[in-house]
Amino acid sequence: MMSLQMSSVRPAVQQPMVVLDAPSDWRAVVVDTYLRAEQEDTAALHAVLVRRVAALTGRVVPPEEVFLGRGGRQATAAVDGMVFRLQAGELVVMRPCDSCGVGLIASPAITSRADLGYALGVWQPRCARCGPDDDHEEDRTWSW
């Protein structure tokens, strides 16, 4: 059986000690810490999307054209009509289903210009309804 020694356990991030005056002050401190961290994360996400899109396309996305969603954990921008999304550290291209044109489907992760070329030129996004080789044939013709 494995035992932990308290001396080997240490916090992931060292924070300066804050002395609180009242019992409820700690709540305000942790909420403020969260809000600051969220702002920093949002700024970092924004910067990463702009940097990665510029490296892949040579185009700079103006800050006002980056949209943040899902509680600041996702950044989206359009470049020449192509939608790029950064979520959970992965950059993807969002395209409609090739068969029905409904919804937006995320490409495989894009880490290079070759990946981007694949996502734009070869990849055929399909929604769950269409499946990999379905062409909604049953919607256009009836067979008895």
Describe this structure in words.
This protein has 144 residues and is α+β, with helices and mostly antiparallel strands. Helices cover 32% and strands 17% of the residues. A 5-stranded antiparallel sheet has the order 1-2-3-4-5, with helices on one face. A hairpin with a 2-residue loop joins strand 3 and strand 4. The N and C termini lie far apart (67 Å). 10% of the residues are buried. The N terminus and C terminus are likely disordered.
Q: Share of helix among residues?
A: 25-40%
Taken from the alpha-carbon principal axes, the silhouette is elongated
Ends apart, CA distance between termini: 67 Å
Instruction: Please tally the helical runs, counting DSSP H or I stretches of 4 or more residues.
Output: 3
Query: What is the topology, as strand order, of the major beta sheet?
Result: 1-2-3-4-5
- Strand count: 5
What's the pLDDT, averaged over the residues?
80
Uncertain runs: 1-12, 134-144
Report the radius of gyration as a whole number of Å. 23 Å
Largest sheet: 5 strands, antiparallel
In terms of DSSP E residues, the strand content is 15-25%
* Sheet/helix structural class: alpha+beta
Order of helices and strands: HEEEEEHH
